[in-house]
Amino acid sequence: MPNQLQREKSPYLLQHAENPVDWHPWGAQALEEAQREDKPIFLSIGYSTCHWCHVMAHESFESEDVAAVLNRDFIPVKVDREERPDVDAAYMAACVAMNGSGGWPLTVLLTPDQKPFWAGTYLPRRQLLSLLGQAARQWRDDPEALARAGNALTEHLRREERVQPDIPDRALVEEGVSLFARTFDRQWGGFGQAPKFPAAHNLLFLLRYARLTGDHQAGEMAELTLERMYRGGLFDHVGGGFSRYSTDRQWLVPHFEKMLYDNALLALAYTEAWQQTRRDYCREVVRRTLDYVLGELTDPLGGFYCGQDADSDGVEGKYYVFSPEEVSEVLGREGAEAFCRRFGVTAEGNFEGKSIPNLISETGWEQEPEEIKELRERLCVYRKDRTSLHRDDKVLTAWNGLMIAALARAGLVLDEPRYLEAAGRAAGFIGKHLKDGNGRLLARWREGEAAHPGKLEDYAFYIWGLLELYGATFRIDFLEETHALAGLLLELFFDREQGGFYPYAKDGEQLITRTKEAYDGAMPSGNAAAALVLSRLARLTGEARWREAADLQLSWLAGAVRGYPAGHSVALLTLLEELWPTAELVCAAERTPPELAAFLREKPRPGLTVLVKTPADKARLAALAPFTAAYPIPAAGARYFLCRGKACASPVETIEELETLIS
Q1: Is beta strand 116-120 parallel, antiparallel or unpaired with respect to 75-80?
Q2: What is the DSSP secondary-structure string of 195-233?
Q3: pLDDT of residue 530
Q4: Residue of higher predicted confidence among 276 and 510
Q5: CA atoms of 112 and 109, how far apart (whole Å)
Q6: Which 3-state string (H, E, C) describes 581-643?
């Protein structure tokens, strides 16, 4: 008998709609039922491309005996962590507090008033049945004891350690670099031992730091990691794009699911590396990563889907691995020999008897012969017909914001108009489909339905994407939308007394905690991204409103980061833009001069903000950045107004003169 999830849009929830478990979606109905029937809540949180979520579902949630216990003694509730990151964050904090670590599937037992008294991750069927039996007996025999445990843990979670605001300084940034150096794997790149996560925002920070300071060690850490990740199996050498993380030290065997946010952040990091090093492979990685997203994860209306599963036909990694015999059937003997030799496909294999294509042992890895490109493209076509991957086709505002930023940045730096067009279409999609009647963001869209009020990450990441789009196109509508959404960001989420942003809006559903998070995980923290966009908006517009908010937020972040700066790389990235020299440029012209894009494309210019003023948008620009009203537009050509270190130079009229000024 289908359960209540059949009415949902989430692919993850729909995967469980035919379970014998009487699942409820998170919401008032389930919570009221728990209160009315005086039953504990069995909360299961996961996502549709999670391998171990599938394993637990098959072992336990498709089992009639497990379902009988859950349906009799609990109110079973399913949550898609990608749709409801606020619910996930609240109960993941409980899991970490109880166990010292967490992960997905996340399993939590709650009192009827939503307070957690047990939390863990994947449980085999036998252990799950044992846990359920013990919990049900204790709830019948001594519910007060479990209620006391739930109250105590909830109070502990609510006693958020008060952040003492601090003064941002360069020493904080330098300490972060030193911490990265201590855990850096000098042979294989990355930080620490297996499993290894890309954490592209760490690499982006190190690249920027190296550029600004000339610190060769920081640059080498980032560049070696980018090289090794690409050469291993983490990168899909047949179809493009990156998997979520590596299970081994040398980046060979990934956890095969591909996530939109990883590919967005990695595209940003490789774009930065290309601009700094001009190594051809970096440019090709950006193109093949973004082309993968455009080909596999793009909705016809312009939004971007969440990701693809690790499993196909119920087998993890089956889609990605090959034997020499199979390659030979597709490419012929000579073609197969060339492909297998280059990508390490052997009879012995490197993953359960088959091979993950990789370039770890290939000495000529950096340059790809044209015939190899043709061979892998043929194999890619074959692979799509051989088997398929489940695709999570939700469109999430937050993750789309990161991909918009990556496409806009790459479109400018690589001079690829199609990436700018895709970024603009995605922004148009969000504007049309993921805003309510009051201009507030919604978190998720799927099959024509948008749902869930936007959270901190939705606003911060999408504003980041819009700022990158403005910086690549100088379309005033992107800057206007940034201005409107940043106002909502402050109104709905900001602690104007102490600094810091709350994870969900002040008028949203109130969960057991509303803790301000600063730590970067697989994605940047919403608080760090909010600081980044406020800092850039303040420097772009010169408006006190943004400057005051940015300063308060940076002081709060400096206090939060002080304990372990390496865990807060996007906050450190923001400090690079605040504490090192900056420059502000206004270009006044009849239309945006094409040489300006070439100037910005030529090399990284950290800390430079650019506005373009034309007759068509001068009034709209003045409403956002009032200081620009005084800048005259020449009758012909362009005029460049550059300010550095709170001092402005005389305007110049050519890019060559501007280059001299800025150098």
Answers
A1: unpaired
A2: SB---HHHHHHHHHHHHHH--HHHHHHHHHHHHHHHHST
A3: 98
A4: 276
A5: 10
A6: CCEEEEEEECCCCHHHHHHHHHCCCCCEEEEEECCCCHHHHHHHCHHHHHCCCCCCCEEEEEE
